[in-house]
Amino acid sequence: xxxxxxxxxxxxxxxxxxxxxxxxxxxxxxxxxxxxxxxxxxxxxxxxxxxxxxxxxxxxxxxxxxxxxxxxxxxxxxxxxxxxxxxxxxxxxxxxxxxxxxxxxxxxxxxxxxxxxxxxxxxxxxxxxxxxxxxxxxxxxxxxxxxxxxxxxxx
Length: 155
What we know:
Blueprint: H1 10-27, E1 45-49, E2 53-59, E3 68-73, E4 76-83, E5 89-90, E6 95-96, E7 109-116, E8 127-131, E9 134-140
Antiparallel strand pairs: 1-2, 2-9, 3-4, 4-7, 5-6, 8-9
């Protein structure tokens, strides 16, 4: 079992996101109320670890590899990207070039997500792959943080 650093403000960020979503849904007016409004988006992220690695899975369906950037600096993993809309859209009247819209639920635009990693990693051995809309990042833990057994010397 890994020991996690306590972050007293970590839960407040997710509460803030939930409150933003609640108020967006409650106070929406005009054409936005009919489902035309495309909200900002952040891709869903799962972070897990075992004895040797930290695993990050990011749901970003419909994105191209060249529109995704992954970086690591000071033990902070940074994910940046932009999901581009396939068609030109005029928000003021919910109209594509040659079609009227009835509902728009897919989200587009830029995102930036950053995560402080729970332990140091070997930056030169990080691997990232993208398949079926999921970005998978494997970050090998630094040797000094991997669990190891210490032999007991009998005297």
